[in-house]
Amino acid sequence: MSEKQKDRDEILEQEEIVTENPATEENNTAEAAEKTANEAEELTLEEQLAQARAEIEELKTQALYKQAEFENYRKRTIKEKAELILNGSKTAVTALLPIVDDLERALPSMQKAEDVAAVAEGVELIYQKFLKALSGLGVKQIETEGKDFDVDLHEAIAQVPGVPDEQKGRVIDCVEKGYTLNDNVIRHAKVAVGM
Q: In the predicted model, is pLDDT for residue 21 greater than 60?
């Protein structure tokens, strides 16, 4: 065979292979595409897994920070409450100290005083100063005179029979004054009530 003949035969053989197996070539292309898609899907799954793990670590870190922050807040509030309990009376004591000073000055002068009216006036001034200091601390006297009996504010220690109808169920007399601190009763007023 001549060279030309051999070349033609080879070309024909290649054409026959191509024409005989076009599906094989398509299969090869499809398999390659599928393999590439699977690899891409695997990479995507691996990337998703890595991303999920990173997100989990970030959430764990945030949770730890929040937990530590809350623990610090809890400790700080416990400490503040303890300080308030220990030093809460500081304001009250500071407000009452000037009154103690006034009483200390008044005691020796009462022993030497000959004018009872001047002593009484001095004691009245100290009493008014004391009430003003209590008022500044949020302490108020419970009003009783002519008021209806209220179990939340008053404690009945006596009942007075034979009073007019308009006095029934009302406070007739106050034996011991009651006080509130910031609108909370700290001592009930002891009263006599009309029946």
A: no
